[in-house]
C-alpha cells in the first residue's frame, strides 16, 4: 500500500515568496493543525496503538518495556513474558533474574525489570492487583510517567490523552504547532489546539505518520499527502519516485509492528521473531 501524494508547493520563486510571507497567526496555525489532523484521519483510518495487548496490565507493561526500543521488539518479547506472568500478582512474585532474562531483548533489561517488579508490587499492594484508571494513580507507579499513563488511559480505558513520544514531539515541532521541547509543555500546548475527543486518535495518527513517511533524518516529502500543509516541506526527499522508496511499514508494502494487528489494518502482521532484513 503506497501513499498518494498531493502536489507539493513548488515553482520558481516559491522560496522568496515564503520568505516574504507574513508570520502565521495563531488562529491560522490552529486551522492548519486541525486540517492536518483531518487529512491524517483519511490517510490512517486504521491508526492504532502498535503494542500488542489484551488488557490494561499487558498494555502498561508493554509500554514500560517500549522505552528506548521498538514496539516490534516489545511485541516479539511479551508473549513469553505474559505466559509466565499473566497478572500483576504473578509478576510481583517473579525472581528478578528470571524476569530480566525474559525481557533482555528490549534492552536496559535490569532497569526495566526493576520497574516492572516495583509497579507490579504497587498494583498488588495498593490497587488490588488492578491497573487504576486515573492519571494521578498511574504516575505513582515505578517507571510510569505521563506518557505511559496517557497511553494506558487512552487505549485501555477510553480516557482521552495526548501521548508525547519522540515521533509526536518531532512532528508537532516540524509542523510549527509548538516550539516546546519539554514533553509536558508540548502536551499542554497541543491539548489547547484540539478538542479533547480527538486527543488519543491524534496521537496515533501523528505517530503513524512519523514512522511511515515523515522520518527524522530523511522524510519522504515527495510521497507525503499533507505536503501542501507542511512548513517544513523540502527537508527531505522531494522526488516522488525516490521518496516512495523511503516509505515504511504498510505504506512501503512491509509488515507492521504488531503480531496481532486490528482487523482493519491494511498491512501484514509482524513476524514473531526478528527477520534477517530487520523489517
How would you explain this protein's 3D organization?
The two termini are 16 Å apart. The model is unreliable at 10-18 and 275-279 (pLDDT under 50). The protein is mainly alpha-helical and 279 residues long. It has helices at 14-20, 26-43, 56-65, 71-84, 88-92, 96-103, 109-126, 135-138, 146-156, 166-174, 183-193, 199-212, 240-244.
Number of strands: 0
Amount of helix: 40-55%
Total of DSSP H or I helical runs spanning 4+ residues: 13
Give the overall shape, derived from the CA principal axes: globular
Approximate strand percentage:
under 5%
Q: Distance between the terminal alpha carbons, to the nearest Å?
A: 16 Å
Structural class: mainly alpha
Mean model confidence by pLDDT? 92
Which radius of gyration do the C-alpha atoms yield? 20 Å
Low-confidence segments, ≥5 residues, pLDDT <50?
A: 10-18, 275-279
H/E series, N to C? HHHHHHHHHHHHH
For the largest beta-sheet, the strand count, sense and barrel status come to: none
Summary keywords:
279 residues; mainly alpha; 13 helices; 0% strand; disordered C terminus
Provide a quick synopsis of the model.
The protein is mostly helical and 279 residues long.
Topology at a glance:
Elements: H1 14-20, H2 26-43, H3 56-65, H4 71-84, H5 88-92, H6 96-103, H7 109-126, H8 135-138, H9 146-156, H10 166-174, H11 183-193, H12 199-212, H13 240-244
Amino acid at each position: 500500500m503506497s501513499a498518494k501524494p498531493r502536489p507539493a508547493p513548488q515553482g520558481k520563486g516559491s522560496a522568496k515568496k515564503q520568505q516574504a510571507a507574513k508570520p502565521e497567526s495563531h488562529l491560522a496555525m490552529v486551522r492548519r493543525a486541525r486540517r492536518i489532523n483531518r487529512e491524517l484521519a483519511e490517510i490512517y483510518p486504521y491508526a492504532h496503538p502498535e503494542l500488542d495487548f489484551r488488557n490494561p496490565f499487558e498494555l502498561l507493561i508493554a509500554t514500560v518495556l517500549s522505552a528506548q526500543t521498538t514496539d516490534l521488539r516489545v511485541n516479539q518479547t511479551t508473549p513469553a513474558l505474559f505466559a509466565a506472568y499473566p497478572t500483576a500478582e504473578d509478576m510481583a512474585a517473579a525472581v528478578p533474574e528470571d524476569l530480566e532474562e525474559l525481557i533482555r531483548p528490549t534492552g536496559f533489561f535490569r532497569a526495566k525489570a526493576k520497574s516492572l517488579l516495583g509497579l507490579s508490587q504497587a498494583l498488588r499492594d495498593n490497587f488490588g492487583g488492578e491497573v487504576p484508571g486515573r492519571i494521578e494513580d498511574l504516575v505513582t507507579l515505578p517507571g510510569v510517567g505521563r506518557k505511559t499513563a496517557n497511553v494506558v488511559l487512552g487505549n485501555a480505558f477510553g480516557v482521552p490523552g495526548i501521548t508525547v513520544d519522540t515521533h509526536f514531539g518531532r512532528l508537532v515541532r516540524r509542523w510549527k504547532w509548538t516550539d516546546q521541547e519539554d514533553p509536558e509543555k508540548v502536551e499542554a500546548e497541543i491539548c489547547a489546539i484540539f478538542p479533547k475527543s480527538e486527543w488519543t486518535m491524534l496521537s496515533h495518527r501523528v505517530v503513524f505518520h512519523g514512522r511511515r513517511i515523515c522520518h527524522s533524518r530523511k522524510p519522504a516529502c515527495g510521497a507525503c499527502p499533507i505536503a501542501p500543509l507542511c512548513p517544513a516541506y523540502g527537508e527531505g526527499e522531494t522526488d516522488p519516485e525516490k521518496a516512495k522508496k523511503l516509505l515504511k511499514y504498510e505504506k512501503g508494502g512491509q509488515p507492521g509492528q504488531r503480531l496481532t494487528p486490528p482487523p482493519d489494518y491494511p498491512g501484514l502482521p509482524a513476524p514473531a521473531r526478528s527477520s534477517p532484513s530487520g523489517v
